[in-house]
Amino acid sequence: MYEYLDGIITSVTPTYLSLEVAGVGYLVHVANPYQYEVGDAKQRLYIHQSVSDTNIALYGFATLEDKHLYEQLLNVSGIGAKSGLAIMAGNDNDGLVQAIQTSDVKFLTKFPGIGKKTAQQLILDLKDKLAIESATAEHPLESQPANTNPQLQDALSALQALGFKDKQLEMVQTRLLDLSEVQTTEAYLRAGLKLLTK
């Protein structure tokens, strides 16, 4: 079992990143790959390892608190690795905890793979267990051309990988293009998640 890995990020995709540690490349699934950048500086990822009969997978998080929250989500019946990542991708731990503590089923069912029954189970299981301090930071969006926009396309691919449907993504793409201010793939991803879970 891993606690964390310190390494260099060598590639970023919509669903995972590659982290090189002592010459070994680890494929790590993360909720928002584009908050990370390829570079020579070492970065720490807190790791949750999932082992099944057919697969071994690593899930990475920027903070230990995020990792613990993800593991608490996985303990809820009906929430798997993918839907857990979709919930974490919003990078709004405070909002998530508040929704659980106030039994806000409507908020929770906005996430892909989370129906009313699973949302109610999540509230039942975690309402009295969560005490998370969020390290969420909002990033202002900066201006960028709307036509050829690889950052937006990467963000849409990441949203699709989290389980959002094509019809939802078409709506989000239109609204994101209408924004007067944009910045990075991470900013597009966050803005898209806010629109989809509003």
Describe this structure in words.
The structure is a single chain. The protein is an alpha+beta fold and 198 residues long. The chain folds into three domains: 4-61, OB fold (Dihydrolipoamide Acetyltransferase, E2P) (Beta Barrel); 65-126, DNA polymerase, domain 1 (Orthogonal Bundle), CATH 1.10.150.20; 150-196. 40% of the residues lie in helices and 18% in strands. A five-stranded mixed β-barrel has the order 1-2-3-5-4. The N and C termini lie far apart (36 Å). Mean pLDDT is 84; it is low at 131-147.
Topology of helices and strands:
Elements lengths: L3 E9 L3 E6 L2 E6 L13 E9 L4 E6 L2 H11 L6 H8 L4 H9 L3 H4 L7 H11 L23 H12 L4 H13 L6 H12 L2
Parallel strand pairs: 3-5
Antiparallel strand pairs: 1-2, 1-4, 2-3, 4-5
Helix pairs in contact: 1-2, 6-7, 6-8, 7-8
Would you kindly provide a brief summary of this structure?
Keywords: ATP-binding, Cytoplasm, DNA damage, DNA recombination, DNA repair, DNA-binding, Helicase, Hydrolase, Nucleotide-binding. This is Holliday junction branch migration complex subunit RuvA. With 198 residues, this protein is an alpha+beta fold.
